[in-house]
C-alpha cells in the first residue's frame, strides 16, 4: 500500500499569487471560407481581450498569430502564415486585418502544419504559454472522406506527435471548436487539448470568442501559478504514483488531495459542454500517432453514431456563458489536465 501523503497544511484558503504574470499568447486560426465571423470577432475584440487580461492579471503579454488554409491544389493562396511574438496590440490587430475567410477546398485543412509552426515561435522560457486554436475542420488523414490527402499531412507533420512536443515545451493548447461543423471530430480535438493540459471549448456564437479567450487565459494563469506553488508535492506524488502503478484518474484524485490539504484554489471558466469525454481521454489521447488516431476514429464511427441533434445546439446556445469563477476548488477535470501537464513536461524522465 502506498504511504500517506505528506503535505504541509496552511490555515486559510489562498489563490496562488505571484507578483506578475508573464504571458505568451498565440492565436492559431483557420482562415478558410466558413470562418469569417470568428476572424472578425478576433479583429474587433483584440484590444478588449488584452486590456481585461492586463487589468486582472497584471500580465506582461506578447502576442503571436498563425493563420492557415490548405495545401495545393486544394488552396493555392498559402498553407500557413506565421507572425512571431509582438508586444504591440496594434501590430497584432494589423495582422488580423490582413486576413479574410476564403478558400479551403476539401473538408480537412492544414491543422498539422499550424501545430508544427507553434513549436517554432520565439517562446519565452519563463512565460505562461497558451495557444488558442480556432477551427471548424479536422486535419488531413483522420476521416479520409472528402480528403485529398487521406494518409495525412503532405508535409508529414503528425498532430498526435506534435501536441506532445507542444506539451513538453510547457505550451497549453485550447481548442475552440466551431460547432456544428466540427462535432464529428470533437473528441479528437478534445484529446489534442487534453494532452497539453488544455481544454476543448465548443462554440456556436462568434460573439463569445473574446469571453472564452479571456476566461481560458485567466484560468490557465491561475493553474500555472498553482503548479508552481505545489510543485515539490506534485513531483513527489507523481513519482509515488508511478511506483504504485496507478492510472491517471487516481493520480488526479491524489493531486486534488494535495490542493485540498494546502488550501490551494484556482479560477475556472464555465465550460460544461466541453467536459472531458472517455473517448478523448481513454481513446484518442492514448494514440501515439495519427495512424492510430485514424483507427480510433473509424472505431468510434462504427460504435458510436453521431447523435448531436439540433436540440443540443439550441441548449448550447441558450445556457452557455463561459463565466469565470474566482477562488474555487480545483475541479476533477482541472486535476486531470494538471496530471497531463506534468507527465508530458517530464515525459523523457517519467
Outline the structure in words.
This protein has 350 residues and is of the alpha/beta class. The protein has a single domain, classed as von Willebrand factor, type A domain (Rossmann fold). Helices cover 44% and strands 17% of the residues. It is built from eleven helices and nine strands. Strand 6, helix 5 and strand 7 form a beta-alpha-beta unit. Helix 1 runs antiparallel to helix 2, helix 1 crosses helix 6 and helix 6 packs across helix 7. The longest helix has 36 residues. The chain is globular. The two termini are 21 Å apart. GO terms for molecular function: protein serine/threonine kinase activity. Its main location: secreted. It is found in: Secreted. This is VWFA domain-containing protein. Pfam families: VWA_4.
Amino acid at each position: 500500500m502506498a504511504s500517506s501523503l505528506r503535505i504541509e497544511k496552511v490555515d486559510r484558503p489562498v489563490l496562488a499569487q505571484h507578483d506578475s504574470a508573464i504571458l505568451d499568447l498565440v492565436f492559431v486560426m483557420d482562415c478558410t471560407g466558413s470562418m469569417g465571423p470568428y476572424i472578425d470577432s478576433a479583429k474587433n475584440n483584440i484590444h478588449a481581450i488584452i486590456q481585461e487580461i492586463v487589468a486582472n492579471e497584471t500580465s506582461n503579454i506578447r502576442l503571436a498569430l498563425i493563420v492557415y488554409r490548405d495545401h495545393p491544389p486544394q488552396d493555392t493562396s498559402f498553407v500557413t502564415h506565421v507572425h512571431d511574438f509582438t508586444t504591440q496590440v496594434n501590430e497584432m490587430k494589423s495582422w488580423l486585418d490582413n486576413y479574410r475567410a476564403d478558400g479551403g477546398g476539401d473538408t480537412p485543412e492544414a491543422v498539422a502544419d499550424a501545430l508544427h509552426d507553434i513549436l517554432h515561435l520565439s517562446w519565452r522560457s519563463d512565460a505562461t504559454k497558451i495557444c488558442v486554436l480556432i477551427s471548424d475542420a479536422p486535419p488531413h488523414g483522420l476521416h479520409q472522406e472528402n480528403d485529398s490527402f487521406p494518409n495525412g499531412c503532405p508535409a508529414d507533420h503528425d498532430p498526435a506527435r506534435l501536441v506532445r512536443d507542444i506539451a513538453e515545451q510547457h505550451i497549453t493548447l485550447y481548442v475552440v471548436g466551431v460547432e456544428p461543423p466540427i462535432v464529428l471530430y470533437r473528441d479528437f480535438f478534445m484529446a489534442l487539448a487534453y494532452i497539453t493540459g488544455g481544454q476543448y471549448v465548443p462554440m456556436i456564437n462568434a460573439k463569445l470568442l473574446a469571453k472564452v479567450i479571456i476566461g481560458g487565459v485567466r484560468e490557465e494563469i491561475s493553474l500555472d501559478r498553482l503548479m508552481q506553488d505545489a510543485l515539490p508535492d506534485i513531483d513527489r506524488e507523481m513519482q509515488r504514483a508511478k511506483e504504485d502503478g496507478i492510472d491517471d484518474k487516481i493520480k488526479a484524485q491524489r493531486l486534488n488531495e494535495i490542493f485540498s490539504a494546502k488550501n490551494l484554489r484556482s479560477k475556472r471558466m464555465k465550460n460544461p459542454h466541453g467536459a472531458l469525454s472517455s473517448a478523448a481521454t481513454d481513446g484518442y489521447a492514448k494514440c501515439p500517432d495519427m495512424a492510430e488516431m485514424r483507427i480510433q476514429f473509424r472505431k468510434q464511427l462504427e460504435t458510436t453514431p453521431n447523435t448531436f441533434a439540433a436540440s443540443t445546439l439550441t441548449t448550447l446556445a441558450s445556457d452557455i456563458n463561459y463565466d469565470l469563477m474566482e477562488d474555487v476548488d480545483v475541479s476533477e477535470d482541472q486535476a486531470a489536465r494538471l496530471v497531463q501537464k506534468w507527465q508530458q513536461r517530464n515525459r523523457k524522465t517519467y
